[in-house]
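Deliverable D2.4 — example input (structure tokens):
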């Protein structure tokens, strides 16, 4: 498989779209991959139990299944640290009669990294379209867009419809520091959930509960 860069523009959405809604459009959530038809799309959430060079084993609550991660750049660099992490996988069932069912990953949300990795739509194991903004958490409000500036614990997000200030001060970790995998910078595509704070003397700002980085995981080959 070959993956190339994908430019993605998503307008802001004022009503949260839970991952279950995405699953309803794209496949059944936590359906057994061993009962699904070859080539069908499926969503599985669970815990990574082990990894190899290009796969990981997922415990999805009803058993174990191999998730194939061919040519995923972040997995090649960080896959060995995943065991024990909670992830959500969306992908295509590959039911080989001689090898048993596996899942070819199209997107992977890694909770500990705060990042949603997705594949180029030109790939066979990918979304056919992105008419539904990829959303991980339910919140009072969700805004998806590109970071245009950062200052201290705040950043500005441009959704394509409007710009809004996001304050990360109340989050359980600091996504603005230089520690950990998620380090927010100008140009990052993110999805933010939280509450609106409306100050009479200032513009409204979004107090973030979660910030998920949306990353096109590309490998030049």
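Example output (designed residues):
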């Amino acid at each position: 498989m070959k993956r190339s860069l994908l430019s993605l523009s998503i307008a802001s959405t004022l009503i949260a779209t839970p991952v279950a809604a995405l699953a309803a459009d794209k496949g059944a959530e936590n359906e057994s991959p061993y009962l699904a038809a070859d080539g069908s799309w499926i969503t599985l959430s669970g815990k990574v139990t082990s990894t190899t060079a290009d796969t990981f084993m997922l415990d999805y609550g009803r058993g174990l299944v191999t998730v194939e991660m061919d040519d995923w750049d972040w997995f090649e660099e960080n896959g060995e640290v995943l065991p024990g992490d909670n992830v959500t996988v969306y992908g295509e069932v590959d039911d080989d009669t001689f090898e048993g069912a596996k899942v070819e990953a199209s997107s992977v949300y890694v909770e500990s990294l705060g990042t949603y990795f997705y594949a180029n739509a030109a790939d066979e194991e990918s979304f056919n379209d992105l008419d539904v903004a990829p959303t991980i958490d339910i919140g009072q409000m969700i805004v998806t867009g590109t970071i245009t500036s950062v200052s201290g614990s705040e950043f500005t997000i441009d959704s394509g419809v409007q710009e809004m200030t996001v304050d990360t001060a109340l989050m359980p970790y600091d996504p603005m520091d230089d520690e950990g995998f998620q380090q927010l910078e100008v140009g990052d595509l993110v999805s933010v959930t939280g509450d609106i704070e409306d100050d009479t003397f200032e513009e409204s700002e979004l107090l973030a509960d979660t910030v998920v980085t949306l990353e096109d995981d590309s490998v030049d080959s």
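The chain has two domains: 19-118, 141-216.
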